[in-house]
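Suppose a classmate hands you a notebook page containing two proteins, each written out with its sequence and a corresponding row of structure tokens. How would you begin to make sense of it? This section walks through that situation. The first entry is reproduced here exactly as it would appear on such a page.
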Amino acid sequence: MARADYRMIRPGKVGRDEVSNERDARQHVSRSATSACRAEAELAEARDQQAATAEVLQVINSSPGDLTPVFNAMLERAMRLCVAKFGVMTTFDGSRFQTVAWHGVPSALADLLAKAPPDPGPYSAPTRMARGGSAHGTPRQLQDACHERCF
């Protein structure tokens, strides 16, 4: 049988232990609520990613041999997941980058991309990825890249 322990606390006579316990309980509830919200957001993001993947796979199945609709679908789904206003997708053929899809791109940028294909510098994120590295550089890596370039 469960036992409950209740104590009467008179107004104005709250001890330090009671205040500390209440503060700890509030902090615990707050941390739990924050964790639950974070988990809920992560679950929603995972579901969105799965839905986008399924949609792209449907496009792949419906257009064998034609990559243009696949690139367009991938870019549109990525933009939706990232809540982006516009996007550009490029491929790398081993020596240069080529724009294969764009969506919602401002006309001035679209004109520029049509006239001059992207040519990222040797220390840019696309070039690091093409070499098998990460798009994200640590501050030290970026500093080293700048030093190599400048000196």
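The notebook's second entry, a different protein, reads as follows.
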Amino acid sequence: MINKKTVVSENRIAWIDVSKAICIISIILGHLNGAQPVFYTGLTINDIIFSYHVPVFFILAGFTFKKQVISRDYINHKFRRLMGAYFTTCAFILLMDSLNLLIEREASIKNITHAWAADIIRSFFASGTIRSFGSIQMESMIGAIWFLPVLFFSLIFMQILENHLPDMRKQYALLGILTIAVLIIRDMLWLPFSILCVPPCTLLIRMGIDFRKYRLLDRIKPVYATALTAFTAWALYHGYGRLYLVTDTFADLGLSLALAVAASTFIMLLSRILSKIRYLQFIGRNTLILLCVHNVDIDTMGKWWSELSDKLHLSIWGLLILNYSWNRFSAKTMP
């Protein structure tokens, strides 16, 4: 049963927002200082957080998934929320690249058109890290917002499966086969909007559906939690946390996916404990805008943002988050 104390306004479940908050903070931490060693484990921050920070989002998308008829209204709704945010962020990146050229006094027609062409191409492919698309060699990639088109197409694909292939076992079989297929062809070509990431991400959404359907989080007893923790620690130590959904790269397909589910389960259980922390709830409710702002920041503002922060001896990005968060939090809590 869902505890009413963990439910916030607008029918949101508090621990889900907290899970999202933990993951978006982990994503930002990984981008800023992911190579930092973690104590004496021999692991880096990225070795740990990659096991859960993106998988949790897809599992939660499954947890909140509802079977619907694939209508124009449904597609338009998902497109406006996810692809709308994606294209808006891409537009901001294009504008900021142009502004950077003006600031650096390199705003010739040739440089601006080159930057625009590069931004349009990388926006079309929506690659998080891949820079080679056949004969096209890119100087940069779109970054963290690759997640948005992949989530959009994964949700549509999951609806197709639920409406036309309702048997759960057949869904798992098909998604497993497609995941293996993309691992084979990923090095030969990369399709627009990171479509090749859809099968493994839809597989995680399918798992999220089962988490809710079978109330798996409520059935985890202490002995199972202990075993889950032990497996997670073992798998991380042996390098199976190197699960890069952004490129369909897994240290080991089976063990890496098992670790992703185990680590994600741990994060969701932890989030239930932390579900009353309102600040984390707030961050979780605003992960979409934080992801987009963060992507623009690291993609286009790095050079002069870093110079300014060095002069002021502070983290501009940290201040932006705190300022934005405090304003929103105050607006919601003040009478």
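A careful reader of the second entry would note: Strands lie at 7-8, 12-13, 132-133, 136-137, 243-244, 249-250.
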